[in-house]
TrEMBL record:
Signal sequence extent: none
Cofactor: pyridoxal 5'-phosphate
Presence of keyword Chaperone: no
Record-annotated Aminotransferase class V domain positions: 28-398
Protein name as annotated: Cysteine desulfurase
Keyword Nucleotide-binding set for record: no
């Protein structure tokens, strides 16, 4: 079993040794919300604070130069992680949310007008919906959503039909759904959109941590991901954009660091990437994210993806056996290591709280995908999300605990009145 090879990586994550909830070993299955980080990342960040931290791009003194070097080295490292053609195509942001907001504001305001269409899928995280709603409020453009089929996925035919009928200006979709686990075919959909002159933004928050991404092969126009789900720190994320697009876009946030010259009557912008990095950037976080990408590369993204699929499928199949369980997502083969479910008679919050008493950390609620939940007739679900440091034994614990809880809460399958959440 591939899992055996992965056991050794657990030692890199001190937090995984935690004992929680009355002497239970922690089973951390909430990785889609945020992953844990290895000691190597923690060490690199504390080394920066202890030895060479200073603000970047400003001071002409040793520490500032060292920090600047490491910050720019981080940009080159992250560029190579996603195979960007040029390092200035990598903009450090506060996270996926900030990256998508940057595109919706900067590219959107400059390129979208009343009557234009932005195409999304119904499976999007709020971070890839609300910025477009705001763009619609500002410009009068329309937002259209691709629906899911009965297999919780979307066929190429449906995508082609929407592209052809709606002629959207932008197709913004997630590479992997944080609720369904389903993975969408980024390269294929991007090339289909480009045939209609439509730009593509890919939300890679749930893909960058788990699979190899090559932005040149995928040919996406924009791509966003977060450090904290990718074994890196919070407070940092990446906006990748093709340089000709970023070059033509106006800055989003403004202030120090993003200018060439400021006078009492105006300003001129700095070149990429500084144009999009106003203010003091997340310096130590960028250095930490770089260490995280190196760590993941050394483990191997393809191997991580294969292992998580195996582990996710295993958990999925086990949970499906439990009476009353409905899995919210496609057949195991079509998705990665995310398993969301509802159980007749057990509210997701009760499930999550009770699993905590077993030492198992999962997420309950709408997972910032309210339109998706609504389209499925649900208000909440329970989500177990796996990473390469999780084990088959943890999946077994989850399955056994869910079966026990199901019996305890709904012995006769009787439906309890749902709590308002
Ligand atoms: N998109 C997806 C698919 C996500 O899962 C998340 C985080 N749950 C986000 C966007 C937002 O990421 P962040 O909160 O790091 O900005």
């Amino acid at each position: 079993q591939t899992g055996l090879d992965f056991l050794k990586y657990r030692a890199d994550f001190p937090i995984l040794d935690r004992i929680v909830a009355d002497e239970k070993p922690l089973a951390f299955l909430d990785n889609a919300a945020s992953s844990q980080r290895p000691q190597a990342v923690i060490d690199v960040m504390s080394d920066c604070y202890q030895r060479y931290y200073a603000n970047v791009h400003r001071g002409i003194h040793t520490l500032s130069e060292e920090s600047t070097d490491r910050y720019e080295q981080a940009r080159r490292g992250v560029a190579s992680f996603i195979n960007a053609a040029e390092s200035h195509e990598v903009i450090f942001t506060a996270g996926t949310t900030a990256a998508i907001n940057t595109v919706a504001r900067s590219w959107g305001d400059a390129n979208v007008k009343a009557g234009d269409t932005i195409l999304l899928t119904i499976a999007e995280h709020h971070a890839n919906i609300v910025p477009w709603h705001q763009l619609a409020e500002r410009t009068g453009c329309k937002i259209e959503f691709l629906p899911l089929d009965e297999n919780y996925t979307i066929s190429d035919e449906v995508v082609a039909d929407h592209l052809q009928r709606l002629r959207p200006k932008m197709f913004a979709f997630t590479a992997a759904s944080n609720t369904l686990g389903v993975e969408f075919p980024v390269q294929r959909w991007t090339s289909m959109a480009h045939e209609y002159g439509c730009r593509v933004l890919v939300d890679a928050a749930q893909a960058a941590p788990h699979q190899t991404l090559d932005v040149q092969t995928l040919d996406v126009d924009f791509l966003a991901f977060s450090g904290h789900k990718t074994c890196g720190p919070t407070g940092i994320g990446v906006l990748y954009g093709k340089s000709e697009l970023l070059d033509a876009m106006p800055p989003f946030l403004s202030g120090g660091g993003m200018i060439n010259e400021v006078t009492t009557s105006g300003f001129t912008c700095a070149a990429l990437p500084d144009k999009f990095e106003a203010g003091t950037p997340p310096i130590v976080e960028a250095i930490g994210l770089h260490a995280a990408t190196e760590y993941l590369t050394s483990v191997g993204l393809d191997a991580i993806h294969a292992y998580e699929k195996e582990l996710g499928s295993y958990a999925d199949r086990g949970l499906r056996q439990i009476d009353g369980v409905r899995i919210i997502g496609p057949e195991p083969d079509l998705k990665a290591g995310i398993v969301s479910f509802v159980i007749k008679g057990v509210h997701a919050h009760d499930m999550s709280q009770t699993l905590d008493a077993y030492g198992i950390a999962v997420r309950a609620g709408h997972h910032c995908t309210m339109p998706l939940h609504k389209s499925l007739g649900l208000s909440a679900s329970t989500r177990a999300s796996f990473y390469f440091y999780n084990t088959f034994e943890e999946a077994d614990r989850l399955i056994a605990a869910v079966a026990e809880i199901r019996k305890r809460f709904a012995p006769s399958g009787r439906k309890r009145r749902p709590r308002n959440i």
